[in-house]
Amino acid sequence: MKRFFRASLYLLLIAAWLPAHSQVVMERKVRFGIILDGDTIPYYRLKDVNVIASASLLSDYEIRHNQKLIRNVKKMLPYAKIGKQRLDILEQQIADLPKKQRRAAIRTAEKNLLADFSDELKGCTISQGKVLLKLIDRETGRTSYVLVDELRGKLRAGFYQAFARLFGYNLKAAYDPNNNKDDNLIERIVISVEHGKL
Length: 198
Fold this sequence. Notes:
By secondary structure, the protein is mainly alpha-helical. It has a domain at 57-104 and 115-194. Helices cover 63% and strands 5% of the residues. It is built from 8 helices and 2 strands, in the order αββααααααα. Strands 1-2 form a two-stranded antiparallel sheet. Helix 3 crosses helix 8 (181-194).
């Protein structure tokens, strides 16, 4: 035992007396921190976290009794998100254009949108179309009537509204999940889909 203790002591003394250049320096990473009253507190930037109330998610009962609406929302939500992205790009492009060039850019964007999605959307049902109108309002913050009015004018918006009414649509109907029970259900379905619960 004495021998082991002496050997350990000799090793410690030798390690302490080695020159600094022979010691291994570990790689260090730069970390940010805040010095508060002489203490250094590390500062880490964390990813944003969405906190949702469990009441926002659908119950098992609601999932069983709203399968058709859930299917429609899941099918139409990607189209609404793509529409929002394209609308944002279009609004940036036409912001400083003169009126004539602005109209041409809007017509070109409309033709591109129809070319990309008309075949897919032709097969949609009336209930899926209603859900799409609600989701577009949800994503853009504007009703479909207001969007058509801003981009194509009041005459075209009025024509589309009259045509839509023949099929039971209302382009002026606003998306209001706080006061409308159906819109609230759509909102909760969207939240559940976006958080991977459906």
